[in-house]
């Protein structure tokens, strides 16, 4: 674990949300390495890749303030429920600000950015701030992309997991929001040539 993270988990008053699979963190690291090597994002060191991948685990910490009836609903959320769900980004930021001593951590600014802005999209249609294009921190944009892929590949109360091919196709079609075109092109190529090995493939019936 990077030195900057020692003791970080101990300052959080609640367990870290775990509706994502354990594969999210290595996926973030894989994408950061790939995009950095391809100059899709600014060059990044191995140490910073490890740091950002570790911080990605905290991206949904604001969901602790979302009612379990919404988080675990087995069907589609109503417009009101979806609006409430989207507040987990800013709630996560406020939670970070409320933790004594955390503001002094060298990773606070990046962690706050990750929690608040992993749902921002390239065309400005994400949330909560409607950031667009280069207004989105590249590394946070990578976490947003990994977040979507992992969500598609992971079983949730309201859906079954999708296959690798289905997940990549949906993301590249824009059905999951718009990402940096250069990043999406690189993502499509790298996922075709080297899909994440840790995810179990979905067995199709019928």
Tell me what the structure shows.
With 206 residues, the chain is mostly helical. It has helices at residues 24-37, 46-55, 68-71, 79-86, 88-98, 108-117, 138-153, 164-173, 181-193. The protein is globular, with a radius of gyration of 17 Å. The mean pLDDT is 87.
Helical segment count: 9
- Could you estimate the helical fraction of the residues in percent? 40-55%
The overall pLDDT, averaged over residues, is 87
Unreliable stretches:
none
| N-to-C CA distance | 44 Å
Shape designation: globular
List SSEs in N-to-C order: HHHHHHHHH
Structural class determined from secondary elements: mainly alpha
How is the main sheet built? none
Question: What is the number of beta strands?
Answer: 0
Report the radius of gyration as a whole number of Å: 17 Å
Task: Report a brief summary of the structure.
It is built from nine helices and no strands. The chain has 206 residues and is mostly helical. α5 (88-98) packs antiparallel against α6 (108-117) and α6 (108-117) packs across α7 (138-153).
Question: Helices, strands, pairings?
Answer:
Elements: H1 24-37, H2 46-55, H3 68-71, H4 79-86, H5 88-98, H6 108-117, H7 138-153, H8 164-173, H9 181-193
Helix pairs in contact: 1-2, 1-7, 5-6, 6-7, 7-8
């Amino acid at each position: 674990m990077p030195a900057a993270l020692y003791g970080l988990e101990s300052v959080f008053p609640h367990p870290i949300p775990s509706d994502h699979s354990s594969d999210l963190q290595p996926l973030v690291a894989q994408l950061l390495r790939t995009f950095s090597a391809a100059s899709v994002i600014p060059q990044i060191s191995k140490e910073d890749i490890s740091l950002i991948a570790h911080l990605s685990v905290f991206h949904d910490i604001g969901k602790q303030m979302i009612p379990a009836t919404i988080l675990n609903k087995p069907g589609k959320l109503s417009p009101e429920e979806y609006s409430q769900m989207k507040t987990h980004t800013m709630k996560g930021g406020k939670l970070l600000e409320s933790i004594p001593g955390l503001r002094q951590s060298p990773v606070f600014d990046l962690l706050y950015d990750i929690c608040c802005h992993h749902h921002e999209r390239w065309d400005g249609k994400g949330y909560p701030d409607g950031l667009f294009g280069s207004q989105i921190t590249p590394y946070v944009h990578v976490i947003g992309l990994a977040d979507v892929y992992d969500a598609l590949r992971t079983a949730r109360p309201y859906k079954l997991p999708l296959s690798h091919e289905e997940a990549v196709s949906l993301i590249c079609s824009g059905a999951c929001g718009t990402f940096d075109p250069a990043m999406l092109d690189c993502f499509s190529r790298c996922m075709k040539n080297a899909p994440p090995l840790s995810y179990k493939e979905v067995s199709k019936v019928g």
